[in-house]
């Protein structure tokens, strides 16, 4: 099974240490893969043309770099790479696709075991787990993942932990470029993507274990990502997130009482959420017909 990882990094963002950790973990993973081929499509943002050659020369051979001079939101960056990979046939129906952030890393043997799970279950389209700053470095491929419920998708399906079969990626299309880091919404593009994937996947499985490395969730970021999360829950309310949406409103009230969330920001979030509820999750995003 071919594995395609899609990520992006800001070359002027001062994150060389975490980016190197990601690349090192993927290089270790590549050495453990047997019949699988690993490709990391990496969008190098803020990478000037004169800097491209020395940067790419230092990258491992499995990295497929694309450089742009400026910066774009995270969801836009992923879409740039997705369109290119699908158009060129790099992502096929049985390709395993994931979207790690540049501060994510994989324990040794992780990718090989995820690939084994997908090979063993031909109906599995979408698998995810949890992340932590100290991920579990143990064998897990023999464990039977549970059929994922919608609440588990909302709470634990992040860009760092979701793995999808190529046929599903082709069917659900692009990330919503109104969401994500670098947009006024600030986040939740990965939850929206995961909920759309859940709706059309043949089988969705969840392993309740922290298997991917990433910094732990921090309470101080709750207000920053609140609006995007509320809007996504409202958008998918007809698919089963209405209870989670109402709970998120209560959480917003709690954050206001703690002075973590301003009244104005809460009101704007509610206004946009109501509009998202009205439109619903049927708003079409462009599918990748060429890979279906």
What's the helix and strand layout?
Blueprint: E1 3-10, H1 16-32, E2 38-45, H2 49-57, E3 63-67, H3 74-87, E4 96-98, H4 110-120, E5 126-132, E6 146-147, H5 150-156, E7 162-165, H6 166-172, H7 189-200, E8 204-213, H8 226-235, H9 242-257, H10 263-279
Parallel strand pairs: 1-2, 1-4, 2-3, 5-8
Antiparallel strand pairs: 4-7, 5-7, 6-8
Structure write-up:
An 8-stranded mixed sheet has the order 3-2-1-4-7-5-8-6, with helices on both faces. The protein starts with a strand and ends in a 13-residue tail after the last helix. With 292 residues, it is α/β, with parallel strands linked by helices. The protein is built from 10 helices and 8 strands. The chain has helices spanning 16-32, 49-57, 74-87, 110-120, 150-156, 166-172, 189-200, 226-235, 242-257, 263-279, and strands at 3-10, 38-45, 63-67, 96-98, 126-132, 146-147, 162-165, 204-213. The chain has 2 domains: 3-216, Spore Coat Polysaccharide Biosynthesis Protein SpsA, Chain A; 226-279, no CATH class.
